[in-house]
Write a structure and sequence with these properties.
The chain has twelve helices and no strands. The chain is mainly alpha-helical.
């Protein structure tokens, strides 16, 4: 046995204080520790708030842009953005992009921007991995300088990965439905349509006009009393691929 009474409260297990000076010394140490802890918590909160505030500001600008722009205007903005973030245009200016600083340039934002630069140069992980798609869109299409070009490119890569994952998943569902039932249920067509309609306006604008009517026609044609055939399956995949890839670099597909 160690002789320590584990059932005593923590204060009862502390050694006795022998004199008044030790009491003052202990109190001073406690205050120092509390101050350091408070300051550290403030720094962390400030860093988190900095990124949250940046996203909030970007969201406000995006809402105003979407409300005051036509679908065609949004499509042109999106195309210009993707052109900047991909291909020859990006590579020609990469040296400048690699030294861009975010706004504000606090330590957390600087670290995030550096991680994005490292990622676009093939080093490390994407700082935006797993971020919700609507937030990725905010970063990709904001031209204010809040996020660096490399941050926006990293966000676009993650957006593309998420869109691709959805494409693979919905295609697997369709093939499974067809192999088991020789039909494609209207629910799967509706799932695809709902996905596209839920895209942020600037991404939805990159889909060809009339996509809703195309999908609605497929939904109507998939009624149980109507004959199913391979042409319908092919038409779905043609449409799916067309909507996802026709406008590459649509939806930040880099």
């Amino acid at each position: 046995m160690s002789g320590i009474n584990y059932f005593l409260p923590p204060t009862a297990q502390q050694p006795p204080v022998n004199n008044q000076s030790q009491i003052h010394k202990t109190s001073s140490s406690d205050r120092t520790l509390k101050t350091a802890t408070t300051e550290a918590a403030t720094v962390v909160e400030s860093q988190i708030s900095s990124f949250s505030q940046a996203l909030s500001d970007v969201a406000t600008r995006a809402a105003e842009r979407d409300a005051t722009s036509t679908r065609d205007e949004l499509s042109k903005i999106a195309y210009a953005t993707i052109t900047k973030l991909s291909g020859d245009s990006y590579q020609q200016n990469k040296t400048a992009y690699d030294v861009e600083l975010p706004n504000p340039d606090d330590p957390q934002r600087l670290a995030q921007a550096q991680q994005a630069t490292n990622y676009t140069n093939g080093k490390g992980n994407n700082p935006f991995e797993g971020m919700p798609p609507d937030q990725l869109s905010l970063i990709i299409y904001d031209e204010s300088g809040t996020f660096t070009t490399n941050e926006r490119r990293a966000a676009s890569r993650e957006s593309y990965s998420q869109h691709l994952a959805w494409q693979i998943a919905i295609s697997a569902k369709i093939m499974d439905d067809w192999s088991r039932n020789r039909t494609i249920s209207s629910g799967l067509y509706q799932e695809a349509l709902d996905y596209y309609k839920a895209l942020p306006p600037i991404e939805e604008s990159q889909l060809l006009e009339g996509y809703e009517a195309d999908f609605q026609a497929l939904i109507n044609q998939s009624a149980p009393d109507l004959p199913q055939n391979n042409n319908r399956l092919e038409s779905f995949f043609d449409l799916l691929i067309k909507r996802l890839n026709d406008h590459q670099p649509g939806s930040a597909h880099l």
